Amino acid sequence: MKKFYLNKMMVVILIITAGFAACSKSNNNPAPTPTVYYDQADQVGRPAINTVFIPASGKDSFNTTIPTQMPGLFANDMKTSLLTLNPGYTTNLLGLTADQFIGVVSTDVLNASTTGVTSFYNGTQVLTGRTLSDDVIDVELTLVFGGPNGAENPGLTSDHVNGNDKAFLTSFPYEASPW
User: pLDDT of 114-132, one tens digit each?
Assistant: First the structure.
C-alpha cells in the first residue's frame, strides 16, 4: 500500500513539474498595441480662409498655429494667393488694401461683439461675429473680387447659395434639423 501511495505521489509531482515547465515565460508574445488617440485641429473661425489663401503644404500647420502667430507665419502666402486670384485687386468694399485685408483675415478667429450687432457683414458691421443666416462665402468672395464698390467681377462675388435648405430654429440649438 505504501508503494501505491508513493507511486501516486511521484505521478502527481511529475505532472506538477511538467505543468510548471510548460508555463515558463516566453518573449514570443508581442506587447499589446497601445491605444492611439487622434486630435483633429481646424481653425475655421472664418470659413474658407484656410481653403482659399493657404497653400496645400501649409494647411495643417495653419490649423495648428496659435492665432496670434498666424499673420507672421502666413501673411506672405496669403497675399500671394489673393493677388493670384485677383491680379487687379486694389482695395475692397471695406477700403482695405491687400496688406490691410490680409492683416484682418490672417488671424483665423471668429470675433464676436458682446455689446453690439453680431454680423459677418451687414453693410455696417464688419466681422463682429456671425449669425447662422450670414452668407459668409458671398461676403468673402465680394471682399476678394468685388473691388472698392463690391460690384466688380459680378460672376465671382457669389456662390449662388442664398440660404439654408431648412429654416433655422428659434431656440437652442438654433440649427435646422438635418432630417
Answer: 888 888 888 888 888 888 8
